[in-house]
Amino acid sequence: MKNERQTEESQVEKFARYLQTNGMKFTKERRIILESAFATHRHFEVDDLLFQLRSNNKRVSKATIYRTLPLLVRSGLLREVHDDDKHTHYEHIYGHEHHDHLICLNCGKIIEFGNPIIESLQDEVCKQHEFTPVKHRYEILGYCRECVGKGHP
Amino acid sequence: MKNERQTEESQVEKFARYLQTNGMKFTKERRIILESAFATHRHFEVDDLLFQLRSNNKRVSKATIYRTLPLLVRSGLLREVHDDDKHTHYEHIYGHEHHDHLICLNCGKIIEFGNPIIESLQDEVCKQHEFTPVKHRYEILGYCRECVGKGHP
DNA sequence: TCTGAAATTGAGAAGCAATCGCAAAACAGG
DNA sequence: CCTGTTTTGCGATTGCTTCTCAATTTCAGA
User: Fold this and answer.
1) Nucleotides in chain C near protein beta carbons (<7 Å)
2) What digits encode the pLDDT tens for the residues A4-46?
3) B130 part of contact set with chain A, CB < 8 Å
4) What residues have CB less than 8 Å from A123, skipping those under 6 apart?
5) Can you tell me the distance from the alpha carbon of B119 to that of B125, in angstroms, rounded to the nearest whole number?
6) Rounded to the nearest 10 degrees, how much is the dihedral formed by the CA atoms of B66, B69, B71, B77?
7) Do the two domains A1-96 and A98-153 of this chain adopt the same fold?
8) Fold of A98-153
9) Rounded to 5 degrees, what angle do the CA atoms B50, B55, B59 make?
Protein backbone atom coordinates (compact mmCIF):
# COMPACT_ATOMS: atom_id res chain seq x y z
CA MET A 1 0.00 0.00 0.00
CA LYS A 2 2.93 2.28 0.54
CA ASN A 3 5.45 0.74 -1.80
CA GLU A 4 6.43 2.23 -5.12
CA ARG A 5 6.54 5.62 -3.59
CA GLN A 6 7.65 7.40 -6.72
CA THR A 7 4.91 6.18 -9.00
CA GLU A 8 2.32 6.61 -6.29
CA GLU A 9 3.33 10.21 -5.93
CA SER A 10 2.99 10.75 -9.64
CA GLN A 11 -0.43 9.17 -9.66
CA VAL A 12 -1.52 11.73 -7.15
CA GLU A 13 0.14 14.46 -9.14
CA LYS A 14 -1.38 13.32 -12.36
CA PHE A 15 -4.85 13.26 -10.88
CA ALA A 16 -4.31 16.63 -9.23
CA ARG A 17 -3.19 18.10 -12.51
CA TYR A 18 -6.21 16.69 -14.31
CA LEU A 19 -8.55 18.11 -11.73
CA GLN A 20 -6.94 21.51 -11.71
CA THR A 21 -6.93 21.71 -15.49
CA ASN A 22 -10.65 21.16 -15.45
CA GLY A 23 -11.42 23.53 -12.62
CA MET A 24 -12.11 20.79 -10.13
CA LYS A 25 -10.90 20.39 -6.61
CA PHE A 26 -8.66 17.73 -5.17
CA THR A 27 -10.76 16.92 -2.13
CA LYS A 28 -9.87 14.45 0.56
CA GLU A 29 -12.64 12.15 -0.62
CA ARG A 30 -11.13 12.00 -4.07
CA ARG A 31 -7.74 11.33 -2.57
CA ILE A 32 -9.13 8.50 -0.47
CA ILE A 33 -10.77 6.95 -3.51
CA LEU A 34 -7.59 7.31 -5.55
CA GLU A 35 -5.52 5.63 -2.86
CA SER A 36 -8.03 2.89 -2.40
CA ALA A 37 -8.24 2.21 -6.12
CA PHE A 38 -4.48 1.77 -6.25
CA ALA A 39 -4.23 -0.25 -3.06
CA THR A 40 -5.36 -3.37 -4.87
CA HIS A 41 -3.36 -4.73 -7.72
CA ARG A 42 -6.34 -6.49 -9.20
CA HIS A 43 -9.41 -5.56 -11.07
CA PHE A 44 -12.10 -4.17 -8.85
CA GLU A 45 -15.60 -2.81 -8.91
CA VAL A 46 -17.43 -0.18 -6.94
CA ASP A 47 -18.50 -2.55 -4.18
CA ASP A 48 -14.95 -3.70 -3.68
CA LEU A 49 -13.90 -0.15 -3.02
CA LEU A 50 -16.79 0.44 -0.69
CA PHE A 51 -15.96 -2.65 1.31
CA GLN A 52 -12.31 -1.75 1.49
CA LEU A 53 -13.04 1.77 2.65
CA ARG A 54 -15.39 0.55 5.34
CA SER A 55 -12.74 -1.90 6.54
CA ASN A 56 -10.35 0.99 6.97
CA ASN A 57 -12.90 3.18 8.67
CA LYS A 58 -12.84 5.69 5.89
CA ARG A 59 -16.20 7.05 5.01
CA VAL A 60 -16.98 8.07 1.47
CA SER A 61 -20.46 7.83 0.09
CA LYS A 62 -21.34 5.49 -2.70
CA ALA A 63 -22.45 8.43 -4.81
CA THR A 64 -19.03 10.03 -4.56
CA ILE A 65 -17.34 6.84 -5.65
CA TYR A 66 -19.61 6.64 -8.64
CA ARG A 67 -18.76 10.22 -9.40
CA THR A 68 -15.04 9.88 -8.94
CA LEU A 69 -14.21 6.72 -10.86
CA PRO A 70 -15.05 8.27 -14.23
CA LEU A 71 -12.70 11.11 -13.34
CA LEU A 72 -9.93 8.62 -12.72
CA VAL A 73 -10.66 7.06 -16.07
CA ARG A 74 -10.60 10.39 -17.87
CA SER A 75 -7.39 11.37 -16.17
CA GLY A 76 -5.74 8.28 -17.59
CA LEU A 77 -5.22 6.41 -14.34
CA LEU A 78 -7.86 3.72 -14.67
CA ARG A 79 -9.49 1.79 -17.41
CA GLU A 80 -12.85 0.10 -17.59
CA VAL A 81 -12.83 -3.64 -18.07
CA HIS A 82 -15.87 -5.54 -19.21
CA ASP A 83 -16.48 -8.93 -17.78
CA ASP A 84 -19.55 -10.71 -18.91
CA ASP A 85 -20.73 -9.56 -15.57
CA LYS A 86 -23.25 -6.78 -15.41
CA HIS A 87 -21.39 -4.10 -13.58
CA THR A 88 -18.33 -2.21 -14.56
CA HIS A 89 -14.89 -3.31 -13.43
CA TYR A 90 -11.78 -1.18 -13.37
CA GLU A 91 -8.07 -1.74 -13.53
CA HIS A 92 -5.01 0.50 -13.26
CA ILE A 93 -3.34 1.59 -16.40
CA TYR A 94 -1.01 4.25 -15.12
CA GLY A 95 2.48 2.82 -14.91
CA HIS A 96 1.38 -0.43 -16.49
CA GLU A 97 2.03 -1.54 -20.01
CA HIS A 98 -0.95 -1.75 -22.27
CA HIS A 99 -2.54 -5.18 -22.48
CA ASP A 100 -5.79 -6.92 -23.20
CA HIS A 101 -7.53 -9.85 -21.57
CA LEU A 102 -8.38 -13.50 -21.82
CA ILE A 103 -11.32 -14.11 -19.50
CA CYS A 104 -12.35 -17.54 -18.31
CA LEU A 105 -16.08 -18.04 -18.55
CA ASN A 106 -16.03 -20.63 -15.80
CA CYS A 107 -13.74 -19.43 -13.02
CA GLY A 108 -13.49 -15.78 -14.00
CA LYS A 109 -9.72 -15.81 -14.09
CA ILE A 110 -8.22 -13.02 -16.15
CA ILE A 111 -5.05 -13.53 -18.15
CA GLU A 112 -3.37 -10.46 -19.55
CA PHE A 113 -1.80 -10.45 -22.97
CA GLY A 114 -0.14 -7.89 -25.14
CA ASN A 115 0.67 -8.27 -28.79
CA PRO A 116 2.45 -5.43 -30.59
CA ILE A 117 1.67 -6.87 -34.00
CA ILE A 118 -2.03 -6.87 -33.30
CA GLU A 119 -1.74 -3.32 -32.07
CA SER A 120 -0.08 -2.14 -35.23
CA LEU A 121 -2.54 -4.00 -37.42
CA GLN A 122 -5.25 -2.27 -35.48
CA ASP A 123 -3.73 1.10 -36.27
CA GLU A 124 -3.66 0.12 -39.89
CA VAL A 125 -7.31 -0.85 -39.88
CA CYS A 126 -8.15 2.55 -38.42
CA LYS A 127 -6.11 4.32 -41.06
CA GLN A 128 -7.84 2.41 -43.82
CA HIS A 129 -11.19 3.60 -42.54
CA GLU A 130 -9.98 7.11 -41.74
CA PHE A 131 -10.93 6.47 -38.17
CA THR A 132 -9.25 8.18 -35.23
CA PRO A 133 -9.00 5.65 -32.42
CA VAL A 134 -9.32 6.70 -28.81
CA LYS A 135 -9.46 3.43 -26.98
CA HIS A 136 -10.42 -0.14 -27.56
CA ARG A 137 -12.03 -3.04 -25.89
CA TYR A 138 -10.50 -6.39 -26.70
CA GLU A 139 -11.47 -9.35 -24.62
CA ILE A 140 -11.33 -12.97 -25.55
CA LEU A 141 -13.77 -15.10 -23.62
CA GLY A 142 -13.32 -18.82 -23.25
CA TYR A 143 -11.94 -21.41 -20.86
CA CYS A 144 -8.58 -21.51 -19.14
CA ARG A 145 -6.42 -24.61 -18.99
CA GLU A 146 -7.53 -25.60 -15.50
CA CYS A 147 -11.21 -25.37 -16.29
CA VAL A 148 -10.80 -27.28 -19.53
CA GLY A 149 -8.99 -29.91 -17.49
CA LYS A 150 -11.96 -30.12 -15.18
CA GLY A 151 -14.19 -30.88 -18.10
CA HIS A 152 -15.60 -27.44 -18.79
CA PRO A 153 -15.88 -27.00 -22.50
CA MET B 1 -38.26 -8.67 -45.04
CA LYS B 2 -39.06 -11.50 -47.35
CA ASN B 3 -35.95 -11.53 -49.49
CA GLU B 4 -33.19 -14.08 -49.20
CA ARG B 5 -35.71 -16.80 -48.84
CA GLN B 6 -33.19 -19.60 -48.67
CA THR B 7 -31.10 -18.24 -45.83
CA GLU B 8 -34.20 -17.14 -43.99
CA GLU B 9 -35.50 -20.67 -44.15
CA SER B 10 -32.27 -21.99 -42.75
CA GLN B 11 -32.33 -19.49 -39.94
CA VAL B 12 -35.68 -20.84 -38.93
CA GLU B 13 -34.41 -24.36 -39.30
CA LYS B 14 -31.31 -23.68 -37.32
CA PHE B 15 -33.27 -22.16 -34.49
CA ALA B 16 -35.80 -24.98 -34.60
CA ARG B 17 -33.02 -27.52 -34.42
CA TYR B 18 -31.41 -25.75 -31.49
CA LEU B 19 -34.68 -25.66 -29.60
CA GLN B 20 -35.49 -29.27 -30.28
CA THR B 21 -32.03 -30.41 -29.27
CA ASN B 22 -32.55 -28.74 -25.93
CA GLY B 23 -36.09 -29.94 -25.36
CA MET B 24 -37.65 -26.58 -26.03
CA LYS B 25 -40.59 -25.68 -28.18
CA PHE B 26 -40.67 -23.57 -31.29
CA THR B 27 -43.62 -21.42 -30.31
CA LYS B 28 -45.18 -18.73 -32.44
CA GLU B 29 -43.80 -16.06 -30.12
CA ARG B 30 -40.29 -17.32 -30.68
CA ARG B 31 -40.89 -17.38 -34.39
CA ILE B 32 -42.17 -13.81 -34.35
CA ILE B 33 -39.13 -12.66 -32.43
CA LEU B 34 -36.80 -14.49 -34.77
CA GLU B 35 -38.42 -12.92 -37.81
CA SER B 36 -38.40 -9.52 -36.28
CA ALA B 37 -34.76 -9.78 -35.31
CA PHE B 38 -33.84 -10.57 -38.89
CA ALA B 39 -36.14 -7.99 -40.43
CA THR B 40 -33.64 -5.24 -39.72
CA HIS B 41 -30.21 -5.37 -41.18
CA ARG B 42 -28.75 -3.19 -38.49
CA HIS B 43 -27.86 -3.57 -34.88
CA PHE B 44 -30.82 -3.45 -32.60
CA GLU B 45 -31.81 -3.59 -28.98
CA VAL B 46 -34.81 -4.93 -27.12
CA ASP B 47 -36.79 -1.74 -27.41
CA ASP B 48 -36.29 -1.65 -31.16
CA LEU B 49 -37.86 -5.06 -31.40
CA LEU B 50 -40.73 -4.09 -29.16
CA PHE B 51 -41.46 -1.01 -31.23
CA GLN B 52 -41.27 -2.94 -34.45
CA LEU B 53 -43.61 -5.63 -33.18
CA ARG B 54 -46.13 -3.08 -32.01
CA SER B 55 -46.01 -1.39 -35.39
CA ASN B 56 -46.92 -4.68 -37.00
CA ASN B 57 -49.64 -5.44 -34.50
CA LYS B 58 -47.82 -8.46 -33.19
CA ARG B 59 -48.00 -8.88 -29.50
CA VAL B 60 -45.15 -10.47 -27.61
CA SER B 61 -44.37 -9.51 -24.06
CA LYS B 62 -41.14 -7.82 -23.14
CA ALA B 63 -40.30 -10.69 -20.83
CA THR B 64 -40.52 -13.17 -23.66
CA ILE B 65 -38.21 -11.07 -25.78
CA TYR B 66 -35.72 -10.94 -22.96
CA ARG B 67 -36.04 -14.68 -22.64
CA THR B 68 -35.73 -15.40 -26.32
CA LEU B 69 -32.79 -13.26 -27.40
CA PRO B 70 -30.29 -15.27 -25.36
CA LEU B 71 -31.62 -18.38 -27.07
CA LEU B 72 -30.95 -16.81 -30.44
CA VAL B 73 -27.44 -16.00 -29.29
CA ARG B 74 -26.81 -19.52 -28.06
CA SER B 75 -28.17 -20.99 -31.25
CA GLY B 76 -25.58 -19.03 -33.20
CA LEU B 77 -27.91 -16.65 -34.97
CA LEU B 78 -27.21 -13.46 -33.09
CA ARG B 79 -24.28 -11.87 -31.35
CA GLU B 80 -24.16 -9.31 -28.58
CA VAL B 81 -22.53 -6.02 -29.43
CA HIS B 82 -21.38 -3.59 -26.79
CA ASP B 83 -21.76 0.05 -27.50
CA ASP B 84 -20.64 2.40 -24.84
CA ASP B 85 -24.35 2.57 -24.32
CA LYS B 86 -25.88 0.99 -21.29
CA HIS B 87 -28.07 -1.71 -22.73
CA THR B 88 -27.21 -4.68 -24.82
CA HIS B 89 -27.31 -4.50 -28.59
CA TYR B 90 -27.51 -7.42 -30.99
CA GLU B 91 -26.55 -8.11 -34.56
CA HIS B 92 -27.00 -11.04 -36.92
CA ILE B 93 -24.13 -13.36 -37.40
CA TYR B 94 -25.79 -16.19 -39.22
CA GLY B 95 -24.91 -15.95 -42.89
CA HIS B 96 -22.59 -13.04 -42.26
CA GLU B 97 -18.84 -13.14 -42.26
CA HIS B 98 -17.20 -12.54 -38.93
CA HIS B 99 -16.18 -8.97 -38.30
CA ASP B 100 -15.51 -6.51 -35.52
CA HIS B 101 -16.38 -2.85 -35.07
CA LEU B 102 -15.11 0.68 -35.17
CA ILE B 103 -17.57 2.75 -33.17
CA CYS B 104 -17.75 6.53 -33.40
CA LEU B 105 -17.98 8.11 -29.98
CA ASN B 106 -19.69 11.17 -31.40
CA CYS B 107 -22.30 10.05 -33.93
CA GLY B 108 -22.53 6.40 -32.98
CA LYS B 109 -21.80 5.19 -36.47
CA ILE B 110 -20.53 1.63 -36.64
CA ILE B 111 -17.98 0.57 -39.21
CA GLU B 112 -17.37 -3.12 -39.63
CA PHE B 113 -13.93 -4.51 -40.22
CA GLY B 114 -12.45 -7.93 -40.55
CA ASN B 115 -8.80 -8.80 -40.47
CA PRO B 116 -7.75 -12.42 -40.93
CA ILE B 117 -4.24 -11.74 -39.71
CA ILE B 118 -5.50 -10.37 -36.43
CA GLU B 119 -7.76 -13.39 -36.11
CA SER B 120 -4.91 -15.80 -36.55
CA LEU B 121 -2.68 -13.87 -34.17
CA GLN B 122 -5.49 -14.08 -31.69
CA ASP B 123 -5.59 -17.84 -32.03
CA GLU B 124 -1.90 -17.92 -31.43
CA VAL B 125 -2.20 -15.85 -28.28
CA CYS B 126 -4.79 -18.29 -26.98
CA LYS B 127 -2.58 -21.24 -27.77
CA GLN B 128 0.33 -19.66 -25.94
CA HIS B 129 -1.79 -19.32 -22.84
CA GLU B 130 -3.47 -22.69 -23.27
CA PHE B 131 -6.75 -20.91 -23.44
CA THR B 132 -9.77 -22.24 -25.33
CA PRO B 133 -11.53 -19.30 -26.92
CA VAL B 134 -15.28 -19.23 -27.29
CA LYS B 135 -15.96 -15.73 -28.48
CA HIS B 136 -14.43 -12.32 -28.36
CA ARG B 137 -15.29 -8.72 -28.02
CA TYR B 138 -13.20 -6.38 -30.10
CA GLU B 139 -14.35 -2.84 -30.49
CA ILE B 140 -12.30 0.18 -31.32
CA LEU B 141 -13.82 3.40 -30.08
CA GLY B 142 -12.90 6.75 -31.57
CA TYR B 143 -14.07 9.27 -34.13
CA CYS B 144 -15.07 8.72 -37.72
CA ARG B 145 -13.86 10.89 -40.58
CA GLU B 146 -16.97 13.06 -40.69
CA CYS B 147 -16.90 13.81 -36.98
CA VAL B 148 -13.21 14.58 -37.03
CA GLY B 149 -13.95 16.93 -39.92
CA LYS B 150 -16.55 18.66 -37.78
CA GLY B 151 -13.92 19.33 -35.15
CA HIS B 152 -14.60 16.47 -32.79
CA PRO B 153 -11.31 15.33 -31.38
C1' DT C 1 -7.43 35.07 9.13
C1' DC C 2 -11.95 36.04 7.20
C1' DT C 3 -15.42 36.00 3.37
C1' DG C 4 -18.14 34.44 -0.31
C1' DA C 5 -18.77 32.25 -4.67
C1' DA C 6 -18.33 27.88 -6.60
C1' DA C 7 -17.63 23.09 -6.24
C1' DT C 8 -18.50 18.94 -3.73
C1' DT C 9 -20.53 15.73 -0.64
C1' DG C 10 -23.97 12.56 1.45
C1' DA C 11 -28.30 10.33 1.84
C1' DG C 12 -32.05 8.94 -0.07
C1' DA C 13 -35.08 9.03 -4.01
C1' DA C 14 -35.50 8.02 -8.73
C1' DG C 15 -34.41 5.70 -13.18
C1' DC C 16 -34.10 1.90 -15.74
C1' DA C 17 -32.66 -2.39 -17.95
C1' DA C 18 -33.17 -6.92 -16.83
C1' DT C 19 -35.11 -10.74 -14.11
C1' DC C 20 -38.47 -13.30 -11.46
C1' DG C 21 -42.83 -15.58 -9.68
C1' DC C 22 -46.84 -17.50 -10.61
C1' DA C 23 -51.29 -18.45 -12.60
C1' DA C 24 -53.23 -19.17 -17.06
C1' DA C 25 -52.45 -20.85 -21.68
C1' DA C 26 -50.32 -23.60 -25.28
C1' DC C 27 -48.26 -27.95 -26.61
C1' DA C 28 -47.10 -32.78 -27.66
C1' DG C 29 -47.79 -37.47 -27.05
C1' DG C 30 -50.64 -41.07 -25.84
C1' DC D 1 -59.67 -35.60 -25.30
C1' DC D 2 -56.45 -36.19 -21.14
C1' DT D 3 -51.98 -35.29 -18.78
C1' DG D 4 -47.60 -33.61 -17.75
C1' DT D 5 -44.43 -30.16 -19.35
C1' DT D 6 -43.13 -25.81 -21.28
C1' DT D 7 -44.12 -21.21 -22.19
C1' DT D 8 -46.27 -16.83 -21.86
C1' DG D 9 -47.67 -12.43 -19.81
C1' DC D 10 -48.19 -9.46 -16.37
C1' DG D 11 -46.81 -7.14 -12.57
C1' DA D 12 -43.61 -6.86 -9.06
C1' DT D 13 -38.82 -6.88 -7.96
C1' DT D 14 -33.99 -6.62 -8.19
C1' DG D 15 -29.64 -4.28 -8.40
C1' DC D 16 -26.62 -1.02 -10.51
C1' DT D 17 -26.24 3.65 -11.47
C1' DT D 18 -27.65 8.39 -11.59
C1' DC D 19 -29.95 12.35 -9.83
C1' DT D 20 -31.64 15.92 -6.43
C1' DC D 21 -30.79 19.17 -3.21
C1' DA D 22 -29.57 20.98 1.20
C1' DA D 23 -25.52 21.23 3.87
C1' DT D 24 -20.59 21.38 3.79
C1' DT D 25 -16.04 22.20 2.09
C1' DT D 26 -12.63 24.48 -0.64
C1' DC D 27 -9.85 28.20 -2.25
C1' DA D 28 -8.77 32.71 -3.92
C1' DG D 29 -8.75 37.21 -2.67
C1' DA D 30 -9.48 40.82 0.79
Assistant:
1) 7-12, 16-21, 26-28
2) 444 445 899 999 999 999 999 999 999 999 999 999 888 999 9
3) yes
4) A133
5) 10
6) 180
7) no
8) Dna Ligase; domain 1 (3.30.1490)
9) 55
CA distance A53 to A34: 11
Over residues B15-59, the pLDDT tens digits come to 999 999 999 999 999 999 999 999 988 899 999 999 999 999 999
Indicate the domain borders of chain A. 1-96, 98-153
Torsion of CA A48, A54, A59, A64, to 10 degrees: 10
* Chain B residues near residue A136 by CB distance under 8 angstroms: 138-141
Please name the residue of chain A whose CA is at the shortest distance from the CA of residue B136. A140
- Distance, first Cα to last Cα, chain A: 39
For chain A, where are the alpha helices, taking DSSP H only?
5-21, 28-39, 46-55, 62-74, 116-128, 145-149
For the B1-96 domain, the top CATH level (class) is mainly alpha
Strand, coil or helix: B45: strand
Tell me which residue of B40, B94, B32 sits closest to B64, measured CA to CA.
B32
